[in-house]
Amino acid sequence: MNEEYETKYFCNSAEEWKAEGVEQLRLSTVDLTGVPSLENLHRGVEFALSHREKGSSVYVHCKAGRCRSATLAAAYIIRIHCWSPEEACQMLASVRPHVIIRSSQLEMLRRYHQQVCGGGSI
Fold first, then answer.
1. Alpha-carbon distance 11 to 60, whole Å?
2. Which of 4, 21, 113, 118 is the most buried (most CB within 10 A)?
3. What is the pLDDT at residue 13?
4. Nearest-CA neighbor of 89 among 120, 78, 80?
5. pLDDT one-digit tens code per residue, 23-50
6. Which of 67, 58, 74 is nearest to 111 (CA)?
7. What's the CATH code, domain 27-117?
8. Catalytic one among 62, 82, 89, 117?
9. Dihedral of alpha carbons 36, 66, 101, 22, sign
C-alpha cells in the first residue's frame, strides 16, 4: 500500500523478494490523504485469500501501518466475515489501537462491503 518513493531506496525490490521465495503485490496508494481504490481493495483481498487457501501468511503494510494497510485489512475482514465496515474497523482497533480509518476510507469500505456482502451499509 506504499507509494513508489517509500520503497525505492530502503526496501528489497520485487526481484529480490522473489529470489527469497516471497510473492509480492504492490498497490500504490497516496500516503495520509489517500484512499485505496475499490479495485485495489479487491486485488489485495484476493491476493490474501489465495495465500490463505495455500496455508501461507500475508504481511500487509504501508509506511506507518495506521491507515492504508488498515483499510485493506478491514476489507479482508469484511470479505471473510461479512461484518460491517464499522465492525471490521472496531476489531482492528482492538488489536492495533493506533489504527486510523478516515471518513473517506470508511466510505470506500462501505462500497466494498456492498459489493462483496450485498449489504445495505451505504
1. 14
2. 113
3. 72
4. 78
5. 888 887 777 677 889 999 999 999 999 9
6. 74
7. 3.90.190.10
8. 62
9. positive
